[in-house]
Amino acid sequence: MSVLLIEPFYGGSHKQLMDLLQEELQEDCVLCTLPAKKWHWKARTSALYFMQTVPTSSNYRILFASSVLNLAELAALRPDLGKLKKVLYFHENQLAYPVQKCQERDFQYGYNQILSWFMPEHKLAHLEKVIGVKRNGDSYQSEGLPGQQESRAVMKTSDAHPESGLCEPQPGLCTTQHKGLPSPPAAPAQAEAPESTNPYQGEDKQCLTFNLSNILSGLDYQQRPLHIAWPHRWEHDKDPETFFKVLMKLKEQDLPFYVSVLGETFSEIPDIFSEAREVLGSSVLHWGYLPSKDDYFRALCTADVVISTAKHEFFGVAMIEAVHCGCYPLCPKALVYPEIFPAEYLYSTPEQLFKRLQNFCKRPDIVRKHLYKGETAGFSWAALGSKFRSLLAAEPREDL
């Protein structure tokens, strides 16, 4: 059986998920991708590109794609692919994605997702009977799936349970891989860096390269200043303004802390980053994307607290990875976070976030002695791998 994997935006969590599936699945896989650049253009035109470049094969049984692809267009352009069992993975909801400027929303992207996700009433009724989904208003929610939350990461499939997985970033076209099943990885995967757009790449290496071991080696563990990590994309939907304003307020009060800003950058970087870099000064341990997976996890393992200020989040792999590495999470009491993290790790306002960090700066031993009260094992490949294999191994049904 052959699984066709299609990813128009091969970077970030999109790349991580596709690479994991290609590496771990027992079935033969064909992976077709486009580089993680110009997201809006990929959402509008990638179906036409893949119509021309996806190899034809009588061995395809399942098509697995992210919702950046307009699946309805591809199915119309390639009837041979339209006949396959299809699994569509939604990394985000384009109808609710935060707009960066005060302007009318371009509904084309949400419309594409609706077309790709839409199913006739008789198929929805069949789903309700076969896999145990229930109607919730105009949406459907699956039941009985351990570790899954509806708003976290939505998969829609014709005749199998939707699953959610741990996934968060180069360019490629079509590759074919035939592998057996290796052992599950010991730690979640951190993707390789795309073409660098870090404007601080050539500056003072003392703060801008990964040198945490040397910086921290002379300090007693319990006496070191609090180390805060922010491992998110440098984009507006992650709300870096709120994060940095809280840190600059800590700086104004002469509270001791270090910060590592580890996220990936793209072509447009919010102005707050350059402002914060100057204000935070010597408090910065690292500034910029770490292409090495080992360096990335080493940075997280040396951090005490990991912060999210996101305005839009379906799952938040970076936060789960950081908690897996021992960080104390602080997340908004909104979006997907209450479904994943216990209440003590949630805050409602920037003021609450500031007060929590203020206390931690004064008493970093509080978080260093803390044992996380939630659970991350359910998000690992060891827990979810068999469900993904089952999802992508089922034969297509004639009535679907």
**Rg over C-alpha atoms, rounded to the nearest angstrom:** 22 Å
Main sheet, how many strands, which sense, barrel? 6 strands, mixed
The percent range for helix content is 25-40%
What would the principal axes of the Cα set say about the shape? Answer: elongated
In DSSP terms, counting alpha (H) and pi (I) runs of 4 or more, how many helices?
16
User: Which structural class matches the secondary elements?
Assistant: alpha/beta
Q: Estimate the mean pLDDT confidence.
A: 76
Number of structural domains: 2
Nutshell version of this structure?
This protein is of the alpha/beta class and 400 residues long.
Report on this model:
The chain has 400 residues and is of the alpha/beta class. It has two domains: 2-184 and 380-391, no CATH class; 205-378, 3-Layer(aba) Sandwich (Rossmann fold), CATH 3.40.50.2000. Helices cover 35% and strands 18% of the residues. It contains 16 helices and 14 strands. The protein has helices at 12-24, 39-53, 71-77, 79-82, 108-117, 121-130, 205-208, 212-216, 240-252, 272-280, 293-302, 317-324, 337-340, 350-362, 365-368, 381-391; strands spanning 2-10, 28-35, 60-66, 85-90, 133-136, 139-142, 154-157, 174-177, 226-230, 257-261, 284-287, 305-307, 328-332, 346-347. A hairpin with a 2-residue loop joins strand 5 and strand 6. Helix 2 runs parallel beside helix 3 (71-77), helix 9 (240-252) packs parallel to helix 10 (272-280) and helix 9 (240-252) crosses helix 14. It is elongated. Residues 130-210 have low confidence and may be disordered.
